[in-house]
Amino acid sequence: MPPTHSTALIIIDMINALDFDGGAALLKNALPAAHRIARLKYRARQAGAPVIYANDNYGQWRSDFRQVVAVCGESGSRGAPLVQALQPEPDDYFVLKPKQSAFHATALELLLHDLGVHRLVLTGTAADNCVLATATDAHIRDFEILVPGDCLASVTRARTTRALAQIRDTLQADTRPSTRITRALLQG
Fold first, then answer.
1. CATH code, 101
2. How many percent of the chain have pLDDT more than 90?
3. Strand bridging mode 119-125 / 144-146
4. C-alpha distances in angstroms, 126 versus 6, 154, 185?
5. How far apart are CA 151 and CA 179, in angstroms?
6. Is position 1 within any domain?
7. How many domains does the chain have?
8. Fewest beta carbons within 10 Å, which of 24, 70, 116, 131?
9. Dist CA 22 CA 26 (whole Å)
10. pTM of the complete model beyond 0.90
11. Closest CA relative to residue 188, chosen from 121, 92, 113, 136
């Protein structure tokens, strides 16, 4: 049984090849967010908070997370800079998701229960799609939600801004910048 902790950092879809229309625009917005997520991840790890990567399986039902990281991090992959910035550690957790929400058809809820988590810090891409869907599902499940606005990206900044407003206003999530997430909050 893993040690319990009240807060978990969830990194959504940042391990990504970005090999789709809009991928270049998303990279432009995601790379600065990736560096801020990396700093937040370091602080979370220092505080003992578990780090969970929630990533698309890209319709590859036989893939595993290590394979996704390898493919997305290959030289020539548009998303390689994201993988370099957010390289998973051996003791990080991961779930592969078939759809937008990290909760839908994954073991995330069971993992969070086993870890004793009741507060989620959600980061990643795309703010207006997978992050929003995950935040909505977390809210439905009564998790306390923090979504640092400086750790999100979408294809356009306007889409991120709209999603963040919805997350804050509709889901009552705390959207303070990552620099204002304290060690005490990460420790729970």
1. 3.40.50.850
2. 89
3. parallel
4. 25, 5, 25
5. 10
6. no
7. 1
8. 24
9. 6
10. yes
11. 121
Write the DSSP string, 142-171. T-EEE--GGGEE-SSHHHHHHHHHHHHHHH
Q: How buried is residue 16: exposed, middle or buried, by Cβ count under 10 Å (0-12/13-18/19+)?
A: buried
* Token pair recorded at residue 63: 């893939």
Residue with tokens 């003992």: 48
pLDDT at 173 > cutoff 70: yes
Single-letter amino acid code for the residue at 10: I
For 141-171, the pLDDT digits (tens) are 999 999 999 999 999 999 999 999 999 999 9
Q: Coil, strand or helix: which one is 125?
A: strand
Q: Is residue 2 part of a domain?
A: no
- Look over the chain and give the mean of its residue pLDDT values, rounded to a whole number: 94
Does some domain include residue 172? yes
In a domain, 130, yes or no: yes
Domain range for 48 is: 7-187
